[in-house]
Amino acid sequence: MTTIHDVARHAGVSAATVSRVLNGHRTVDETLAGRVRAAATELGYSPNILARNLRKSQTNLWAVIISDVNNPFFTSLVRGVEDVGQQAGYSVLLCNSDENPDKEASYITAVLAQQIAGVIISPSSRPDNMAQLVEGSRAVVTIDREVQEVETDAVLVDNERGAQAATAHLIEQGYSRIACITGPRKVSTATSRLRGYRQALRDAGRTFDTNLVRYSDFRETGGREAMADLLDSGARPDAVFATNNLMTVGALETLAERGLGIPDPVGVVGFDELPWAELVRPSLSTVAQPTYEVGRTAAQLLLKRLENPDERFTVITLPTTLNIRDSSRR
Amino acid sequence: MTTIHDVARHAGVSAATVSRVLNGHRTVDETLAGRVRAAATELGYSPNILARNLRKSQTNLWAVIISDVNNPFFTSLVRGVEDVGQQAGYSVLLCNSDENPDKEASYITAVLAQQIAGVIISPSSRPDNMAQLVEGSRAVVTIDREVQEVETDAVLVDNERGAQAATAHLIEQGYSRIACITGPRKVSTATSRLRGYRQALRDAGRTFDTNLVRYSDFRETGGREAMADLLDSGARPDAVFATNNLMTVGALETLAERGLGIPDPVGVVGFDELPWAELVRPSLSTVAQPTYEVGRTAAQLLLKRLENPDERFTVITLPTTLNIRDSSRR
DNA sequence: CTGTTAGCGCTTTCAA
DNA sequence: TTGAAAGCGCTAACAG
């Protein structure tokens, strides 16, 4: 291992000067700086990151805490984060909270212990976790979901409008008993999307019927059970809007099991794109989120916050796109 | 920040003793150890990981270098790694080489610079990268693909047998002109799976026809183009075996575009499970890999290697499962 | 079994 | 503008 002292000796300067040059402090004479850079390349020097971390009490790591690595929504997002982070010299730690507040809490503890530079998080339903994270961390950007109790930079999508567009589309296709399978009551995306659904019904002069609404868990089995329950309960839905991709898959499975055709007698629109939505037969109508963009934008906010810790918080809301395919077109 | 010295003072011992107790060295008197533990909890002490990292010249981080985060094969694998790693006190860095040897090289450099404790990698086609990684890293486990030139612990699946079973199944269903879309010539999974395909043909007394083989890139568009080329070339395939999930998707897209029915006139079997294989119509026959298990096993090998750097290398080969669904059944 | 001591390699005052 | 020196908090070699 060549150290900063080796470079210093080789260039005939002190270690402090080498440090200054390599960190881009402009206060060094150009001649010396040149000598230092030459020595560094000649010796193949690269600074010991661990020593730097200790000295600065901070790593060059980011953490992304998401609720499900298996959900393509998040993987695409992670790429967006990674692309920006790597550019700026950060490596990305992936943490998978699994929609489980305890697991989230343990990751937050780990993140604080590691002295991670910045955190991008899709928060679970426990606001205390977020409070602790924000308290102990240098920079936090919230994605996907809002947390009322804690203020941070955030990147969201226009959930309400997306849900409204999806529901309005189903209405316009002549469906009359449109069900909604949404996520946990405490998760903002679940409630916003439900609100959009409700708004579309109201706009169309329809009544909002709680018999047609199910609160589930954003998972495949949850969607499956919610759909079964809707069919068995006598609510007689002729269409369903599911507020995330996995629950949509679950709903489709139930419909297939029951031998119910799509889009007739039952129309389907899902929130979130499925990677192979075109291959599913009939092809699936979705409200698509700009997932990669969400990740990229969050990473950019994080970068800004790291540079400028005292700036006011920004919240960016990105638009969704309604992709009308065969599952809702009759 | 409470430091080890605070705890030492509080417990009336030296910092070294505190360190010993907290690291589980058994050479400390139980009375003292108890006092230390009491002091530590009372003060809410947690060791500074950055200092420990510097001192030990090693982080408590693992890196997983994979070729595509968007591929569900890898995300499930990452979970397996993460579950084991977290248990043992490691955090997992996710690196996305994107099937690009240059990107892989840059991640390897980063991993070495970070002094990552252990690396799990699905190597690209550039053996030099692996050589450099193995040279500079404490522990490396290879997954998914073999690299001839470099010896490491490894977790593989029985690609040849899986491919053979898939092809034999197509033969048994009465398909006579079975094509194979495989990956890059330099990637072992591509060649092993092709070998299995070939073996099945031989076993059935069929001739191996290179006109029915395409080397592609393990990506969706690659599979799409390869399928189109097969159809346009006059090779007249009546079935296709694609050697990974994304290329299978591509092939399905081409077949749909051309209005060719599945399983008639064209049968399809893919390697790797698709997350919603059941929803694709017709449902897709696949050779499934135990992805989560691959990750878990690799992590366990890594743990072992870290404990025991001089042990002989182990290579574990896990079995695949042929899931026969509608796309190949006529 | 325990304490003293000496760094790990870097950044950053502080003084020149 | 530069260098000397201190020290981030920890672990491990060594001595007792």
UniProtKB/TrEMBL annotation, chains A, B:
- UniProt cross-references to CDD domains, sorted A to Z: HTH_LacI, PBP1_EndR-like
Annotated HTH lacI-type domain ranges read 2-56
Q: Has UniProt tagged this entry with the keyword Endoplasmic reticulum?
A: no
User: Which one Pfam family would you cite for this protein?
Assistant: Peripla_BP_1
SUPFAM superfamilies reported for this sequence = lambda repressor-like DNA-binding domains, Periplasmic binding protein-like I
Q: What's a Gene Ontology MF term here?
A: DNA binding
Q: Return the protein name.
A: LacI family DNA-binding transcriptional regulator
Give the organism, scientific name: Fodinicola feengrottensis
The major lineage groups are: Bacteria, Bacillati, Actinomycetota, Actinomycetes, Mycobacteriales
